[in-house]
Amino acid sequence: MTPTLVRNQPAADASAPADAGTRARDWAEIQERMLAPLYEAVYDRMEVGAATRMLSLGCGSGLAMLVAAARGAHVTGVDSDGERLALARARLLPDAGWDDAPAHSPHPARSRARLLEDGLPVPAGADGAPYNLITVFEPIGCAAGDSEGLVPALRSAVPLAVRGASVVLTGWGPPERCATAAVLRVAARLAESARPPRTDPDRWRPTLRDDLEDVAARAGLKPDGSGRVSCPFGYADVNSAVRGLLSTGLFDAAVRATDRSQVEKEVAEALHPHRRHDGTVWMPNVFRYLVCVT
Known about the structure:
Shape: globular
Number of helices: 10
Helix content: 25-40%
Mean pLDDT: 84
Oligomer: single chain
Radius of gyration: 19 Å
């Protein structure tokens, strides 16, 4: 699966804050697909198929789960964002849940999917079998403290997996390899007006080389390989780019420190060097993944 330019999005009212539903839909319709090359690369390396019982932590609106289910995997997703989870249900479970999906379902990939709200008990995989793959496709490394909730989540999930199961963590690549890093610096600058600036958990900061290894060590996981994947961010126009980027949550601290219209204006200006002659926006990026074993 290769990244594509997303369709033009209607302009939003800059004076009004984006509601949770609009933000989740911007993520699902604009931004989530930018990480599709990462999903595919991980699944190729882990040989995801019919024997895979995958637990996706922070599954978002379900695109990564859909790709895995299409390969034959049994997938369970957990997320704390109710709006994104609702969109994942619409993608994966339009008619029935995990247990009552008929074997002759016209959507066999969807019959292998299950979605749970974050904080609920996470049972074992299909037919009571434990998971053999745990994935975290929400990249860390661009916001202060963005891995803090991940460590306890991993500690809770690992006992549900077989001994020696694979765990895949993902993160942003080096800033010099990510064109989007320059745009994300807008978030850092605007968030500095918050009081006190250094305590905001969503404040952007440069990616560190050992972010993923640090999470693995704190979660008691053993690293077993890594890789880098090119994930260019391509948008049909500047408005689509602004909406997609703001849906990531990386600009939340900046919005709290100033206001949404100001953030949108400055992000649009920062995107100018990445705008092509036809009005599209293109930003090459590299993301990293770390394979661990339980």
